[in-house]
Amino acid sequence: xxxxxIAEDEDLIRTEMQRLVxxxxxxxxxxxxxxxxxxxxxxxxEHKPDVAFLDIQMPGMTGLEAARAMTDxxxxxxxxxxxxAYDQHALAAFEAGAVDYLLKPVQAAKFEAVVRKLQQRxxxxxxxxxxxxxANLAEVLAKLAPKxxxxxxxxxxxxxxxxxxxxxxxxxxxxxxxxxxVTAQGEAFVxxxxxxxxxxxxxxxxxxxxxxxxxxxxxxxxxxxxxTGRGTLxxxxxxxxxxxxxxxxxxxxxx
Length: 255
Prior knowledge:
CATH superfamily of the largest domain: Response regulator
Number of domains: 2
Number of helices: 7
Distance between the termini: 59 Å
Strand content: 25-35%
CATH class of the largest domain: Alpha Beta
């Protein structure tokens, strides 16, 4: 039984998508309903759906950005169908890349055609043990939603998945194969190296202060230097402090 995720910020369209799935794909199970891209990404991690219907224009994280995060995390897990109002640039890219999409208002015949493609692709993937997604989906998404400074981090906290806004991060610290993320609410871990994350963060806001630590400069309240050429950073929202090595101390001279 295929598992379906629907993400749409308009109640009426979300309800209509539910009806279309129930009517034209009755063997499928709708496991989650998202109201924006960030919510969709959180639900995706929780339910691991086979298919995600993503509205492109949603508040906060767009459907394109959510899809990019999904494919970055696991390029073969979920087939993605974009649901959108007419956008010539996006549609041309989708068609060139054989990426599935539906135009609003969604017509039953178009929905059925997309469902048949999804079913055929899933059957072929199951028999050949190959990815179900178009091989160039990541390339299409790169053109439509080029990588920018990170806005969200999807991290694990015990058995749970947390979606953390970058603005809420106080500092990040290397922890073997993971990176520890510290916020005012606690800590979580992401399976990415500190170097990988540093390449994606806004360099004006996040600075490396130690070979294993990167801090959010907006969260820093002050620094205390010692006689060895090192220092200790204090933060506004937590009592925990972090060390600043001599190699990075110079950037805090104005403080």
